[in-house]
Amino acid sequence: MNDPHTDPESDPIIDAEAVSDDELVVEAEAVADDGIEELAVAEVVPQVVSPKAIKPLKPTEGPNLKTSRFDSVSSWLMALALFVGIFVTLLFVIWLTRNMKFASKPFPPIIEEAAGRGDNAEGFERDFEPPGAEEVEELTEPTLADTLEAVTDAVSSVAASLDTMNTNAPASTAGTGSGDSRPPGPEGEGEDIVPRFERWRLNFKAKDVSSYAKQLDFYKIELAAVGGGVQGVDIASNLSGGGKKRKVDTEDPAAKRLYFSWTDPSVNFAAWDEQLLKKAGVPLGGKRIRIQLIPENLENELAHIELAYATEKGHPSVTEIAQTVFESTGSGNSFKFEVIEQRYRKTK
User: What is the pTM of this model?
Assistant: First the structure.
């Protein structure tokens, strides 16, 4: 009789359970021998598992990786939200650049000291300087006896002559002075240049009064009315927004600026100036003169644009410029002045 522990044909009940790599723990259940229960535990036996013995999992046995309807809808909404966010950001940037006015760097002033004769008569000489202390005695009023003697000498002398002068001014025997050879303008000594108020000309291009008012506000040009028996200067600003009126004295710095007026009062722009002044509440009765007041920063900018254009054409000095024509160009809320024509003075 064979021992059940050693008999290979015995059929004990064995449960095998994998515990770790290459190891198999086998636990034998109780085996009855001669009425005595014995518990047999097999030793740990290393065992190599063949790859062929590993059965691959079927698709139905693994995790469900199929895209659900919730995932599809969520991804679509996220993509839509991202697109809308980028689109709105681009619209905001476009609005910001078109409507916000960024402060421009001020242009340094170009000082022009133009010579002018003021109220003096046109002529070919200059007024004498005030007399010195040594000349005062000669200018004192003579006595009565000296006056009678001088009159007698003048009556007895009938010879007279006219000085011949090298000038284009017409000669005249009327008056005793020779006039002032300086060009017209505020009285002063300076360079022989054509003043800006005579040299510059501003042109505008607009379809209606609204677009014209936008240009004036962009350049900070103010309209004003002077004269006509009305004291002071009435100034209108914020022309595209309904107009804002203020009144200043003629000696106020706000009124003592470079200004222009339309040479042809029948053009649409002159009529639009009158319309904008009336809209701002400026009285225009009594043949008041309508003018455009130019801010200092715009005047400096025009001076730089003019000089740069003249330098490019081979005329680096403002003394060579006879006339400069500017034109306002642009669209929307951005405008700029450009030189469209420039004439130069003849060299002497």
Answer: 0.56
